Automatic annotation (TrEMBL):
Residues making up the signal peptide according to the UniProt record: 1-22
Descriptive protein name: Nicastrin
Assigned GO CC terms: plasma membrane
Protein's membrane topology: Single-pass type I membrane protein
Compartments, record wording: Membrane
Domain Nicastrin small lobe: 37-215
Chief localisation class: membrane
A biological process from GO: Notch receptor processing
Membrane spanning stretches: 666-686
Length: 710
């Protein structure tokens, strides 16, 4: 009988509980929100980026339409912490620093929303002086000489806010999808946007963001912790930024190395290279967003097209005036983070380990480099300059060649390239070479800065005005100068890339052959069209298909990620670059059948018709990992090499829910406690009066301990 009573009592408790907690269960309904998180990176001395708290940061949604809305949150927040939803035009340096100063008790999450109505005039998260501390140094001062950070209008990124290099005490989540933004706004309007005095008493629409970063302080601390723990278990707190640079030579190298001996590697001093380089990567504040359309894709497209054009114009190496001359094209990865790729290249050349021994060719050293032509940003092609540290006959001569073609009526490019001599050189890969030796013959092609969205989520196809022509015509063959205007407007992006590529390629042609280029063939703007479509809109594209093995799986219908990432990251863009160099810079071998075209350097590619063709290729990868991670006992604070690492994290997620008010929480808790006490007393009373209420006393009673509460 007592058993029955106990069962009744338990049911009674459950019933009461379900009444009091019922509402809360409904409130707890979560709705996930899709977006991209800002994450943490570390260098030798600092941490930058964002992290949530370990269990996730929660804030009440508040839509910020004008600056006054922020003032309201910061001066009299009725029920903090808040999660302001900020439209891009208010996502400024000043506003974010104010939010940061308010502290995580007031502002716990920041959401950057995408509202189509916003017309922004500028949005760059990079510093005014990109890679400020890793370029050429002023003599005896550990400060970069090439950019004056105290004079932003005269810097390499006048619109830079430097937010990418700030450390934030709250997560920042970017919501690109306008429908997701609408969901947030609706929730805010329905539950939060009225009667602010009673905020503390109401349930409010809140967002929870989980993006906890396991590394903190700086790379030194993180590497020490990682190595220490690694001896015991295998927890990683951070990974060095690491990827692969891609290089290829114009002519196959004929400089085999004797692998049978144990003697140190030696250089073949007869070999001479012209180094033509550019940057492969880009970056932004948010994970997986940011195409770097103008900041580096323009230069990269140009380098690829120059390579392809030279491949088709030049005679065999044997018939050059100097048959030991070659061109080495390199696309450096990780340049956005203190020149990782070029620092490593310089380090490897100094140590005679470039190219790797596995390539079975002799190493290349500085002695082999005749000069370097570095292609930087090409924001405005009517305003390109050739930068050098000092005036040299080489630079003057090359500039003359460039302008010969740029202004020639035969081609009608109608451009004028100016010379710019002095210590203010652009933040490009050449800085790594000049830092080692200011006498290094580096020529840098770079336009006057005009990109208002440098290193941001908005440097995309819209920023460069790209529209895919999709002509399905032959984009591989060179084109006649008269025909090239048939497919595009004179000012189209494709024409800009093709025109600059032609000028650079012709100047290099003249350098190599000693003869002026007098042909009518120019770079094909259709190749630029296909290239830009692949990198800006979809990796499932004609050009990538043509450079892959026939029938291999096509790319995803998204643009490839061009952030360097870490070991085990996607490495998509270097993979595609490798294949592109393999296709565009190789020589067809029509006499080699498919079954005999299996071992590198022979490579079987689909080709423009997808039918398959054998090609003699020259491309290869090289590691883009900063030398700082190779040198034992490297001084992380020295600033000699890039020290960037990326924190590890377990998840990125965001969701909205109704956060119960404090009053609600307290009421719920109080009712819970009261119910608990009542039920204990009830059981105690029933139990102690059981001999009166029921006749027999079961043995199980003994198991009931005496409650102490009543
Ligand atoms: C690390 O980054 C911060 C912020 O950009 C910078 O001030 C500092 O000089 C950098 N430290 C090193 C060692 O590169
Ligand atoms: C720089 O330092 C070196 C030695 O450390 C010294 O010989 C040289 O005069 C210094 N140059 C300047 C411009 O101070
Ligand atoms: C947003 O919602 C509208 C209407 O529900 C729908 O037509 C549209 O495709 C959605 N857009 C995206 C990007 O999901
Ligand atoms: C490589 O070196 C060994 C020993 O020095 C020599 O016997 C051999 O002929 C060399 N091979 C080539 C291809 O030069
Ligand atoms: C590119 O060159 C063509 C002539 O070949 C010229 O008509 C056109 O204006 C040029 N376009 C740009 C953007 O320089
Ligand atoms: C390009 O054109 C082909 C047909 O010629 C079409 O199937 C394809 O969808 C087009 N691609 C784009 C991105 O417009
Ligand atoms: C070329 O430019 C004109 C005006 O600048 C524009 O009306 C036209 O649509 C453009 N044509 C193409 C193919 O983009
Ligand atoms: C492949 O190479 C072998 C040996 O060089 C040759 O005998 C054979 O005929 C080649 N196959 C074809 C299809 O050309
Ligand atoms: C592709 O096919 C077209 C016609 O079908 C042909 O004219 C062209 O030469 C082919 N190109 C290659 C590279 O095989």
């Amino acid at each position: 009988m007592a058993q029955q009573m106990k069962t009744v009592a338990v049911w009674f408790i459950l019933l009461l509980q379900s009444i009091t907690y019922g509402e809360r269960t409904r409130d707890k309904m979560y709705q996930p929100i899709v977006g991209a998180a800002c994450f943490r990176r570390l260098n030798g001395t600092h941490q930058i980026g964002c992290s949530s708290t370990y269990s996730g940061s929660v804030g009440v949604l508040h839509l910020v339409n004008i600056e006054a809305d922020l003032d309201f949150l910061l001066t009299s927040p009725p029920s903090p912490p808040y999660a302001p939803m900020i439209p891009p035009h208010l996502f400024t340096h000043r506003n974010l620093l104010r939010l940061k100063e308010a502290g995580p008790d007031i502002i716990s999450v920041v959401l950057l929303i995408n509202r189509n109505s916003d017309k922004m005039t500028q949005f760059s998260h990079e510093l005014n002086c990109p890679n400020q501390y890793s370029g050429l140094l002023k003599p005896n001062i550990s400060e970069s000489a090439t950019c004056d950070a105290s004079n932003p209008p005269n810097s390499w990124n006048p619109w830079g806010t430097g937010l990418l290099h700030q450390d934030f005490p709250f997560p920042i989540y970017y919501i690109a999808d306008v429908n997701e933004t609408q969901t947030l706004v609706n929730c805010f309007e329905k539950f939060n946007n009225f009667d602010y005095e009673s905020h503390a008493l109401r349930s409010l629409c809140a967002v929870e963001v989980k993006s906890f970063m396991s590394a903190a302080v700086n790379t030194e601390v993180c590497m020490r912790r990682t190595n220490f723990i690694n001896n015991l278990g295998s927890t990683k707190y951070c990974d060095p930024l690491e990827g692969r640079s891609v290089y290829a030579t114009l002519y196959p190298r004929n400089s085999p190395e004797n692998l049978t001996t144990e003697v140190p590697r030696s250089v073949n001093t007869a070999e001479k290279f012209i180094l033509v380089t550019t940057r492969l990567d880009t970056t932004s504040m948010f994970d997986g967003v940011g195409l770097g359309a103008l900041d580096s894709l323009m230069g990269f497209a140009t380098l690829t097209q120059v390579a392809h054009l030279l491949r088709q114009l030049l005679p065999p190496q044997g018939s050059l005036p100097d048959p030991r001359r070659n061109v080495l094209f390199v696309a450096f990865n990780g340049e956005s983070f203190d020149y990782i790729g070029s620092q490593r290249f310089v380090y490897d050349m100094e140590n005679l380990v470039f190219p790797a021994r596995s390539t079975k060719s002799t190493p290349i050293s500085f002695e082999n480099i005749e000069f370097m032509l570095d292609i930087g940003t090409l924001d405005d092609i009517t305003n390109i300059k050739l930068h050098t540290l000092i005036t040299t006959p080489l630079a003057q001569d090359f500039l003359k060649k460039l302008n010969n073609y740029a202004s020639s009526p035969r081609y009608g490019f109608n451009l004028d390239i100016q010379s710019d001599v002095g210590i203010q050189i652009p933040p490009t890969s050449a800085q790594s070479f000049l830092r080692r030796d200011t006498q290094f013959p580096a020529l840098i092609l770079n336009a006057v800065p005009a990109n208002k969205y440098y290193h941001s989520i908005y440097d995309d196809a819209v920023n460069v005005g790209f529209s895919y022509a999709n002509t399905s015509r032959d984009y591989i063959s060179l084109i006649d100068v008269s025909e090239s205007k048939n497919y595009f407007n004179a000012t189209a992006l494709q024409m800009k890339v093709a025109n600059v590529s032609s000028i650079v390629a012709f100047a290099l042609y003249e350098t190599l052959t000693g003869l002026q280029y007098t042909g009518n063939k120019v770079a094909n703007p259709l190749l630029a069209d296909e290239f830009l479509y692949c990198f800006l809109q979809s990796a499932d594209c004609r050009l990538f298909k043509a450079s892959s093995y026939p029938g291999s799986p096509s790319g995803l219908p998204l643009p490839p990620m061009r952030y360097i990432s870490v070991l085990g990251g996607s490495q998509e863009s270097s993979g595609w670059t490798y294949r592109l160099f393999g296709y565009l810079l190789s020589q067809p071998q029509p006499s080699v059948a498919k079954e005999n075209c299996t071992n590198l350097p022979l490579h079987w590619v689909a080709g423009i018709n997808g039918t398959g063709e054998c090609r003699l290729t020259t491309q290869s990868y090289m590691d883009a990992l900063s030398p700082a991670f190779l040198i034992e006992n490297y001084d992380w604070r020295s600033g000699k090499y890039s020290t960037w690492t990326e924190s590890t994290w377990s998840q990125f997620s965001a969701r909205i829910f109704l956060r119960p008010s404090h009053v609600h929480k307290i009421t719920t808790l109080t009712i819970g406690i009261v119910v608990l006490v009542i039920s204990f007393c009830l059981i105690y009373i029933i139990n102690s009066r059981s001999d009166v209420l029921f006749d027999d006393v079961p043995a199980s009673n003994a198991a009931f301990s005496r409650p102490t509460a009543c």
